[in-house]
Amino acid sequence: xxxxxxxxxxxxxxxxxxDASATYFAEVKxxxxxxALLHHPVYQKHQTLIIGGGSNILLxxxxxxxxxxxxxxxxxVIHESIENVWVEFGAGEIWHNCVLHCIKNNxxxxxxxxxxxxxxxxxxxxxxxxxxxxxxxVFEALHAINVQTGETVLFKNKxxxxxxxxxxFKNTLKNQFLITKVVLRLNKSPQFNISYGAIEKTLETQGxxxxxxxxISDAVIQIRQSKLPxxxxxxxxxxxxxxxxxxxxxxxxxxxxxxxxxxxxxNHKTKIPAGWLIDQCGWKGKVVGETGTYKNQxxxxxxxxxxxxxxxxxxxxxxxxxxxxxxxxxxxREVNVV
Length: 338
Ligand code: FAD
Ligand code: EPU
Prior knowledge:
By secondary structure, the protein is α+β, with helices and mostly antiparallel strands. The chain contains eight helices and 20 strands. It is globular and about 60 Å long.
């Protein structure tokens, strides 16, 4: 049975480094710990918040309830064919460690998702994505516990309703399931994906002759380190907003005024980088009290040290307002506000 701590600081449990606390806090190491917790009076009388690495949450107040920190570990091959290997990961495994484990075993598919912070269990929540790959491309299934009934449910890929930074767990099933295990279908012979962004150029400057999944991972890591702040140095949660997908006529009219606007066609609509929109509004690298945006990437809101979650939230509102006024586009938050 998981130990329930009281008045626990969450500062080291969220990558924004927000100094908030939880009235109750418990760590779960196996599915049985979760089931036992569901019968505990503290659970039954309070609201709950499940956290993994805390790299996609903004704590705007102390959490008056029970925080459940997922520490369910384990990596196991559960099935193999000539072409593929199906690997089951405990939801409390660190995502990047799993990527490295796959690379070591020459299992291809998630090398482009190198260095994304957080745990495996949160990866399906927003269908993590980077450098031309999304979790859904390799996702087979997940096991989750219904936090009302204690029943374990298997969700296959199509059940999760994955989209760009979206899944059913962020929408209709929000706060209803605790994910315990994720199964990925990886490839024994890689299909390299290097067309996105600066990967090809980086491989060239790194002098890579023979393409491997390790080489792609190294290139992605180098690009990410040049653009994104390390949360250990500067508190942040990656992209604060989603890239908006807008009507192509609106995109074309903005492009007339800003010929250098980057854009990506997206199912008869157009995706515009939110970072570019925010940058155009003059926010890049701006410092507002203890908050600001990162100097190399305006889409990343940062805590310069002592910011509260409310201050960061207030900054995000000002940024939304600027972008709306200048471009007529409403930015939607990617980060989960608590
Ligand atoms: P948390 O922040 O702990 O939780 C996120 C949400 O999931 C919360 O709502 C939480 O309640 C819920 N949750 C967590 N675990 C479970 C569980 N087991 N069961 C049910 N619900 C759960 N994301 C990308 O997609 N692509 C990127 O390239 C990327 N780059 C980033 C770079 C930086 C520097 C940072 C700080 C973040 C970045 N992110 C990126 C965002 C983040 O890393 C991912 O969303 C990651 O999957 C969050 O994992 P976590 O364990 O930290 O989740
Ligand atoms: N740009 C600017 N100014 C800025 C920031 C960006 O002009 O301040 C321009 C860039 O020059 C580039 C374009 O905007 O032309 C896109 O920028 P970038 O390549 O950095 O990617 P992004 O669209 O901002 C997305 C994801 C990242 C993911 C990268 C790589 C979203 C919301 N963000 O960022 O995911 O790592 O692509 O695939 O989709 C995250 O979700 O937390 C995250 C970091």
